[in-house]
């Protein structure tokens, strides 16, 4: 998907691929504690290689544990991740929030790149 952020075709993409897995290279653009939890996070992801990118949709993992929920693969899984971490993602498409222009995803696997 190479769309402008919040492109109106995002909703159609979400409807077509809901429940299916997608794979993309992306970068963590924001990582925040989920409701104050010490080990659960909300992670905002953008496609591409740069935090500053506004091309493409915004993806979000909500209420995930970085160690156990991201499904790390490969031999070089990082000890920690944060804003700016460039990773390969495989995720199941969930709902699309057209007010916030965010695709909610469920992690399948993650790989350092």
What does this structure look like?
The protein is mainly β and 113 residues long. The protein has a single domain, classed as Nucleic acid-binding proteins (OB fold (Dihydrolipoamide Acetyltransferase, E2P)). It is built from one helix and five strands. Strands 1-2-3-5-4 form a five-stranded mixed β-barrel. A hairpin with a 4-residue loop joins strand 4 and strand 5. It is globular and about 35 Å long. The model has no long low-confidence stretch (mean pLDDT 89).
Q: Round the mean pLDDT to the nearest integer and report it.
A: 89
**CATH fold assignment:** OB fold (Dihydrolipoamide Acetyltransferase, E2P)
Output the CATH class name.
Mainly Beta
Identify low-pLDDT runs.
none
Give the SSE layout.
Blueprint: H1 10-17, E1 21-33, E2 41-47, E3 58-64, E4 86-97, E5 102-112
Parallel strand pairs: 3-5
Antiparallel strand pairs: 1-2, 1-4, 2-3, 4-5
Give short descriptive properties of this protein.
single chain, globular, mainly beta, 7% helix, 5-stranded mixed beta barrel, 113 residues
């Amino acid at each position: 998907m190479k769309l402008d952020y919040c492109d109106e075709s995002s909703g159609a993409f979400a409807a077509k691929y809901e429940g299916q897995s997608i794979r993309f290279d992306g970068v963590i653009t924001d990582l925040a504690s989920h409701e104050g939890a010490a080990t659960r996070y909300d992670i905002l992801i953008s496609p591409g290689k740069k935090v500053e990118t506004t091309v493409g949709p915004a993806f979000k993992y909500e209420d995930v544990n970085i160690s156990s929920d991201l499904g790390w693969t490969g031999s070089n899984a990082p000890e920690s991740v944060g804003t700016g971490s460039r990773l390969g993602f495989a995720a199941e498409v969930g709902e699309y929030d057209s007010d916030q222009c965010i695709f909610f995803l469920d992690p399948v696997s993650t790989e350092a790149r």
